[in-house]
Design brief:
The structure holds 3 protein chains of 3 kinds.
Chain A (H helix, E strand, L loop, with lengths): L1 H29 L4 H5 L15 H4 L11 H31 L9 H10 L5 H15 L5 H25 L3 H9 L4 H9 L4 H16 L3 H6 L7 H7 L7 H27 L3 H4 L2
Chain B lengths: L2 H34 L16 H7 L2 H31 L7 H13 L2 H11 L6 H7 L12 H29 L4 H8 L4 H12 L1 H15 L4 H6 L11 H11 L3 H32 L3
Chain C lengths: L1 E11 L2 E12 L3 E5 L6 H9 L6 E6 L2 E2 L10 E4 L11 H11 L4 H14 L15 H14 L4 E5 L7 H16 L5 E6 L2 H7 L2 E6 L2 E6 L1 H6 L4 H6 L6 E8 L2 E4 L4 E3 L10 E7 L4 E3 L5 E11 L2 E8 L2 E8 L9 E6 L5 E4 L6 E3 L11
Parallel strand pairs in C: 3-8, 3-9, 6-7, 7-8
Antiparallel strand pairs in C: 1-2, 1-4, 4-5, 9-10, 11-12, 11-14, 12-13, 14-20, 15-19, 16-17, 16-19, 17-18, 20-21
The chains are: A mainly alpha, B mainly alpha, C alpha+beta.
Amino acid sequence: MPGLYSSLKYLAVALWSVFVVTPLLWALTTSFKTSNAVTGGPTYLPWLQYQPSLDGWRSLFGGAGGIDIVKPYMDSLIVTGSASLISIVLGTLAAYGLSRFDYRAGFIKNTDIVFFFISQRIMPPIVLAIPFFLMLQFLGLLDSKIGLILVYIALLLPIAVWIMVDFFDGVPRQIDEMAMLDGCTPFEAFLRVVLPNSLPGILVASMFCLVFGWNDFFFAFTLTFTDTQLLPVAVVALNSSVTPWWSLSASALISVAPLILCAFLVERLLSRGTLAGAIR
Amino acid sequence: MDQSEFRFYKLSFLLPGFLVLLAIILFPLLFTIRVSLSGWDAISPGLDWAGVKNYAAVFGDIRFWQALWRLGGMAVFTVLAQYVLGFALALLVWREIRFRRFFRVLFLIPMMTTPVIMSVIWRTIFHESLGPANDFLSLFGLGPYPWLTSANWALASVMLVEIWQWTPFMFLLLLAGLISLPREPFLAAAIDGAGPVRTFLNVTFPLLAPVSIGAITIRLIEASKIMETVYVLTSGGPGTATETAGYYIYIKGLRDFEIGYAAALSITYLVIMIVLMTIIAKLLVKLFVGGRA
Amino acid sequence: MSLIIDNLHLAREGIPHLDGVTAEFGHGSITAVIGRTLAGKTTLTRAIAGLQAVDGGSLRLDGKPFGGTPAWRRDVAMVYQQFINYPHLSVFENVAFPLRKRKVAAGEIARRVTAALEMVGLASFGTRRPTELSGGQQQRVALARALVRRAGILLLDEPLVNLDYKLREQLREEFRGLLKDQTGAIVIYNTTEPSEAMMLGNRIVVMHEGKVLQAGAPAEIFDRPASVQVARIVNDPPMNIFSGIIENGAILLAGGLRIPVAEHLASLPPGSYRFGIRAGELRVGGEGDASGKVTFSEVSGSETFVYAQAPFGDAVLQIEGVHAMANGTQLSISVAPDRLFAFSAEADGALLAAPVTGDAAWPK
């Protein structure tokens, strides 16, 4: 019966939607609570079950008993932004080379090199965290933005390469050749002809790099302490029984808010078919 | 054609990125190996030589192998659940449903959020007396359940959070795959009178085999690193009930500061992961592609 | 002054793509390189353009070595088989690209681009994007871009092969006019169709399996193909080849068919030969020398191609007009003795004697 089938579909979708939204809505209401609304048992609806207040949100900006969310935000922006930028630039160049040229060193071929890049993701963070810790300590770069940026490049470069190689493979090689015949060196051909036709790829790669970088916790946690504080670390540091739930929820929400915008962007790209190229 | 000028360009594209990555990864890796052969810990810091003593200890470290086994189980279960759910969701919002785009955006949101930060929120949700989880279930006369304080429940909580977080990843990849499928096979199936189930089994699923393999492989690789969720939600507890290999190594290395031993654990962990991933990747290909001639 | 190609070799995975290719292309010449697919035409073109490294041999332009210059410094323009244009640029910018790259003055660019677009009939298309255009229009843009540079060497690699039949005919006419105007340039045009080659080129190079089989004026190649292979390549449908012997002053083909020895074959000693006759020169009907059974027939334009099994071998005939030929129909076929080619029975199949020219059925 088509009617039943259709209802079931909407029901399933509705159920999952509720599941998706639950933690976020809970955090939202909790951020407006004060101590009565929490200690007496869970409450949900403002004004009906508790009196909303802006305490949680005010504490974000250094108010009484509060945290300063601005510094971690800035630090995250700088570190993630720089690391992503460098990763995209180096990764796109490398990906173009791997897409267009034949590299051969003994028995190592292009596919092996691409595999090398991608396989970096298998590396469990802990394997690198220990030496990074010791090495940054030795270089005096612990708790610094630069040290963290270097580490993040190692994490994000493979992503950039993985995505861009696929996109470049989708641009016909003859366009490069035509540009060369028209007088462009391989680099000019890349810059003036291939790159303008790969902008969706750069967009996708940038987005993935930014999101992965922004969301890292482990490396920021082990390699930074006070001078540099990234957002995830700052929020988790609040995760003690001392911090009131409303400040916790507010800081959590404000940290993930920009990322939710990314979801819109990804859906846009998806519907336009751009992502179909990246996904293999 | 002149090779040397061309070669200059060839190399200048690949080398910067390649060398940077090599430098940032290779040296630490070699360093870790060297450290694993030393007895570096809080009491006696520094690179001395301890031979394979650490590795021998790893071999007999029950807690480590339990953590590894636990990790394996969690990874496999969560990835499987994510795959099934992700596929179902992708199919649901693929075509004939209203507000498609709204639901697609909604379903993508969890994977964009910062996992650790969401875990912080989940911790408040799973709070036994003050959290909504038990409150909601009490409406049905169920619970209260010891979400974070009892071994099996803690495991379930961690896995639930992981599923919430990463099902969108499968959803995204599979939906992108569905969108890029050609219409013809479906028209042919419709003409042959195939119903939705048969169409799925014989057309949709086989056509998405490559995407499925890629998605599962990637998710398995990422799931093998589960550590942050555990750290925030349960701190490995109660006891060691939710301790994953990564978490255990973190404790040994950066909390108890037995760096030499932790390095040996890491290398063992890495080697096992590489071997397993290669095997699994090949198995997946066989499973998805080999079975259908 | 010319482009001289000397003994080019290129092999990949053991298969030779260029097997000792030697040819000369003079200034102002339009050379049609004809050969089947995988004959090496594209490889040769790409080697000239600098997009393909060769294993051995040399290229010299006007006496100076050419092979060492990278592609972006060679004075070569190329039109591909696939419609290659820059998707992110407008038609005008597409054609202007090589000029902008060479830092030509803006006013001059505008003048030359407009002229080029007019030449290919796309004068009002300047602001459009290539993706909005049809296949034929896209190829014209590519051609305009190739022409606007007035490059010394102009390469066209089967540019019409991806267009439909009618469009191909129309563009072929346009190309003929345009290419003739490229005074001084060396034009090389790859094709698989003999009619196209004969129409566009004032010189023909026949390639097969990486080798140059014959080079010369169209008439010469058509009237005196150097070997069986050439004869097959430059005729469409391929020339019929039958084994036979000359004995007792007559030609004996398989199946007992006897043909008198015509004058141009008189000097050949008795022995085994391979005889060739064009599809259009086998006559049907009338008394006939032999009877053949139709295996397949196909109407194309205003002609009918008939494949028949004759006692002397499988033959293809080209008949004027549209005829319905059911399979199995018995045909009487006659072989005009004065239209026979004689080739050696050896492997090389070299030409030994050719009919007198004058009555040759020129391809259209």
